[in-house]
Amino acid sequence: MKITRIETFMVPPRWLFCRVETDDGVVGWGEPVVEGRAEVVRAAVDVLAEQLIGKDPLRIQDHWQILTKGGFYRGGPVLSSAVAGLDQALWDIAGKTYGAPVHALLGGPVRERVRVYAWVGGDEPAALAEQIAAQVEAGFTAVKMNGAGAVSPLTTPAETAAVVDRVAAAREALGPDRDVAVDFHGRFTAASSRRILAELAPLHPLFVEEPVVPEQSHLLARLAAATDIPLATGERLYGRAEFLPVLAAGVAVAQPDLSHAGGVSEVTRIASLADTYGALLAPHCPLGPIALAASLQVAFATPNFLIQEQSRGIHYNKSADLLTYLVDTEPFRFVDGHAPRCDAPGLGVDVDEKAVRAADRDGHAWRNPVWRHADGSFAEW
Ligand SMILES: [Mg+2]
């Protein structure tokens, strides 16, 4: 079997899919994307495709070496995301070829269902309680919310109180048997994070995510030592070498993104690395159906897995949502806040190729907003 064709599709709301075709008719799908930089990743996929055309798709480990290291310069979001999507497609092909779900190829399932969380906005306490009530009604046992919008470099008492009040409102709506995770999104300085973490501790968040931006990861050890709240990070880390220092710093939850951190191949290695630090895996996934399918395959085969992000109804998904490009939506029919085990071959989703090709004709040009402080200077989004 040989790889004969690799195509990419820019599909709304902000995704990029790749399709890898073989000469015996088996097709694999992947989702190589950096949100807001999809065109750049598309170009990277086109260049990497040169290494795969004419090759045996089942030599995934060897392809991963060549794709990540064969160009001398390596790593970073664009290249690692391009590799990630191609890697997902190769695992999809392998599963379909062997007639097995990817989790079987990874050693078999260690759980029967995967806990997923729902996104709630978190910007306004009254709306928050309503959103949480709707997610609880839908069966979810955990939600994630943002800590704050743009805040002062050292948060004012009112800004600090607003974060705490919103999380308190979430805790009240959820009760003691459900979880709330709080995403700081790198919006706070380390000093502000430290102050806010102390005040949030009594509300028992599941974890606090990105308490500092990734380039300040050297400050995580101090923050981890100063709080009892489990700290999480990883959506902007691209391989196991970048996870090593944050795990050593005491991060409790590793959040690699299956579409950014080298795909199924690398995220399983990151999970093993996290396990040696007693840390848990909670893959980032505000993305499309292929990224989520790949995430779930890893979740089923990973002992130290905690919880899975998913994008159904997330605020980004305006023109299309998680189920838009699927022939069969059953794999993402969450029951009691869990994804059922899917034993279909490959990644386990049936992509609606016609819908994908049609959507690509319009494409998208999604960009994240650029925020500024009141004085006009740049603010982290
Ligand atoms: Mg995040």
From TrEMBL:
EC number: 4.2.1.6
SUPFAM superfamilies for this protein: Enolase C-terminal domain-like, Enolase N-terminal domain-like
Biological process per Gene Ontology, one example term: amino acid catabolic process
Recorded GO MF terms: galactonate dehydratase activity
Enzyme class: lyase
Keywords for the protein's UniProt record, in alphabetical order: Lyase
Domain Mandelate racemase/muconate lactonizing enzyme C-terminal: residue ranges: 125-230
SMART domains listed in its UniProt record: MR_MLE (SM00922)
Name of this chain's protein: Galactonate dehydratase
Originating species: Streptomyces parvulus
Gene name, Swiss-Prot/TrEMBL: dgoD
